[in-house]
Amino acid sequence: MQSGKNSKLSLTALKPSTMIKRQHLRKYSWLPDVLRVKGSIITSILGPVLTVTIFSGLVAYFWSRGEKVVLTNSVVPLLSVVVGLILVFRNGTSYDRYWEGRKCFSTLTSNVRNLSRMIWVHVCLPPSEEQPTHIKGKTPISMLTAAEVMRQKVEALQCCVAFAYAVKHYLRGEEGTDYDDLTAVLPPRFARYDETGYNSTRGRASPTSYAATENTTGESESTPRLSPGATKRVRRKRSKKFLDGRATTSCTPLLSDSHQTIVFHSYANQLSIPLPLVIAHELSGAIFRFKREGLLETVGPAGTNAMNGLVQSMVDQMTSMERVANTPIPASYGIHLKQCVTLYLFALPLTLINELGWSMVPIVTVVAFTLMGIEGIADEVEMPFGNDKHDLPLDTYCDDLKEEVQYMIERLPEGGHGAFGYDDGEGDD
């Protein structure tokens, strides 16, 4: 009895290791993917395919009753060439957009990693020893403490990570900072960022800003309606185009007897800027302050220029991804493709019914599944920045980047307190 229990326990222990998993079976057979429904395009094209199948069944029914529903075979070859060319263009263009988005975000990730590493290692207090004899000019002296430098470096690294999260939300048309993943990485001094602009705790309105041109006569102007987004994923930025219809009613004394001047009302203050550009501005400002406080003397002007170049590259990659998200494939291509495929599939039963009979129905269904599946896949991947299951996993990319920077802050050493000496920017003589 005891031996029977032991053998049963041993079989139970061996069962998980001997089970054939789908990921292992894929190495030797296509069968797991052939029978797979989850993650496929079947659910998206099921309705159109069933429509073609029902039409094929009706053609076969009327043919069996003696009705003349036969079409000449010279029509289908002409349509098949057109359908094939359009499908190749559609599928290739959609995947190019998908791959372009992946390349741009990977380059953005690389820039964030490099900038974070350079800030963490190279930003440090200048050497505290006496003036070296071979250095021309004065050695910069910083009034900051090591704790203050550490705080500024951590905030700069937080801005680096926040830039990636902000780009992700911006590409998805999600504005503001009211997102858990974004608020967790933004520095505390980001007081508020909303649709009307960015206000920091240390910012002030300049005398030449639009805030100084508000209407002081007490008249209330209605805020113009915001323009709709260029796509469903990225909203077009607002501009001063609303001034065109209102400023034309005013003129200057040099142009008319009416002593009127152009007045910028409060609606001129309705300006906006994407949050990633605000973070990039903060990063550039942080690099400037590091240089001004003498915290980048270990790398010299070349290191400062390299950091600014990384920030510029981050903005360039964001603009490239914005181009992909904000420039959809013209609707005429998709409409014409669907029309050609539909015409081809509805003409196919009429040409095959005389030779195949009722067996034509499953054949046409397979053809419809193939052609409509290709178009469905292209439609799924042409906009790669959304939340669909086939879109790029931007959440995973950003979370991994956050974990890497957090590991750098907690475990990797800094460059030290003037550990690498002083660089006057003149190179080695």
Summary tags:
single chain; 1% strand; 56% helix; 429 residues; mainly alpha; two-stranded antiparallel ribbon; 13 helices; 2 strands
Please write out the topology.
Blueprint: H1 2-18, H2 22-25, H3 31-34, H4 42-64, H5 75-122, H6 146-171, H7 180-183, E1 192-194, E2 197-199, H8 244-247, H9 275-292, H10 300-326, H11 331-356, H12 360-381, H13 394-411
Antiparallel strand pairs: 1-2
How does this model look, in words?
This protein has a two-stranded antiparallel sheet. It is elongated. The termini are far apart. Residues 7-19, 195-268 and 417-424 have low confidence and may be disordered. A hairpin with a 2-residue loop joins β1 (192-194) and β2. The chain is an all-alpha fold and 429 residues long. The protein contains 13 helices and two strands.
| SSE order | HHHHHHHEEHHHHHH
Name the poorly predicted regions: 7-19, 195-268, 417-424
User: What's the rounded overall pLDDT mean?
Assistant: 75
Estimated radius of gyration: 32 Å
Question: What is the compact description of this entry?
Answer:
This protein has 13 helices and 2 strands, in the order H-H-H-H-H-H-H-E-E-H-H-H-H-H-H.
